[in-house]
Amino acid sequence: MHTSPILVIGATGKTGRRIAQKLEDAGHTVRHGSRNAAIPFDWEDPAGWPAALEGVSAAYVSYFPDLAVPQAPAAITQLTAIAKEAGVTRLVLLSGRGEANARRCEEIVRDSGIDFTLVRASWFFQNFDEGQLLGSVLGGTIAMPAGNIREPFIDIEDIADVAVAALTEARHGGQLYEVTGPRLLSFADVAAEISKASGRTVNYLPVTLEQFHAALSDEAGPQMADMLTALCREVFDGRNESLSDGVRRALGREPHDFSVFCRDAAATGVWNPPAEARTA
Ligand SMILES: NC(=O)c1ccc[n+]([C@@H]2O[C@H](COP(=O)([O-])OP(=O)(O)OC[C@H]3O[C@@H](n4cnc5c(N)ncnc54)[C@H](OP(=O)(O)O)[C@@H]3O)[C@@H](O)[C@H]2O)c1
Fold first, then answer.
1. Does position 79 have pLDDT exceeding 50, yes or no?
2. Which of 45, 80, 87, 165 is deepest in the core (most CB within 10 A)?
3. Host domain of residue 62
4. Which of 64, 104, 123, 240 to mutate to test the pocket of ligand 1 (most atoms within 8 A of CB)?
5. Is any ligand 1 atom within 6 A of the Cβ of residue 101?
6. Is 18 helix (H, G, I), strand (E, B) or coil?
7. pLDDT at 276 (0 to 100)
8. pLDDT tens digits, 110-143
9. Helix, strand, coil percentages in the chain from 3-state DSSP, rounded to 5
10. pLDDT 10s digits, 233-256
């Protein structure tokens, strides 16, 4: 049990929120890394990082918006130096599978002189019920520049369990856990499973990178469109069409299946909001 706090960077986000909750449920003290926390953490304001890391035993690092952006390696370099200075003894980095820039950031953490665990994840199930693609699901069309590529989507609950273990158990030091779900799924498979679970019709529309960029620029602005288009250009070439055993290696159990996630997400009503919420 840690008596000094564990910093969870991105503690209001998809992975960090679950990790902070699981740590607190297990009795650990958590310092919430958020721009709105009592000790704020802002990736845009390195001057605040020493205070956020002071007295911290271990830190979960989820970079925003994505390790794929060009400025990520410099930020991770600076963060690890400050963490070392602060005496942090374990860093757990959330990384993305098949991304060159994420790989650079992993190496920075590996070379930081701090004990570490790397959690290299495939695409999240929760992109479809709380992330970027929820709007597409509600609109009935998931338009992606992914052709028939299959991705081993993963449940964030599995990522959170791996991260919590890595933050709290010494045996995960120095490990790289490549974490995927148990099945390769095309976006057409995903649309079909969400349709079946939710009772609404969701289709997959394969689009070009140019079409994807144009649609996303209108919806989320040019910066997000540039970032996600570059990411899709990089990873949707078949490189990630394989399963990996990181969840089993870290936790001794199999990862959750997408069909179970779909059933549970459908039961919350997120895919069938009242009509007024859809048009708001
Ligand atoms: N989505 C995927 O399928 C996928 C797959 C593999 C890896 N990843 C990796 O997952 C990471 C993101 O993790 P996530 O999905 O858990 O996070 P997230 O839900 O995208 O966001 C995490 C938090 O970032 C915070 N944030 C926004 N701007 C910030 C800033 N300038 N400084 C500090 N915090 C800021 C927000 O918290 P506050 O508003 O409270 O500050 C937000 O709650 C990325 O690095 C990506 O590479 C994603």
1. yes
2. 80
3. 6-125+154-181+240-255
4. 64
5. no
6. helix
7. 52
8. 999 999 999 999 999 999 999 989 999 999 999 9
9. 45, 15, 35
10. 999 999 999 999 999 999 999 999
CATH of the domain at 166: 3.40.50.720
Q: Is residue 137 part of a domain?
A: no
| Total domain count, the chain | 1
Q: Which of 21, 31, 53, 62 to mutate for ligand 1's pocket (most ligand atoms within 8 Å of CB)?
A: 62
Give me the pLDDT at residue 278, please: 55
215 in a domain, yes or no?
A: no
pTM > 0.85:
yes
Q: Look at residue 36 and tell me if it is in a domain.
A: yes
In three-state form (DSSP H/G/I as H, E/B as E, the rest C), the secondary structure along 185-214 is EEHHHHHHHHHHHHCCCCEEEECCHHHHHH
Helices marked H in 87-128 — which ranges?
Answer: 100-110
Examine residue 276 and state whether it is found in any structural domain, yes or no: no
Which residues on neighbouring strands pair with residue 119, listed in sequence order? Answer: 94, 177
Q: Is the CB of 42 under 6 A from ligand 1?
A: yes
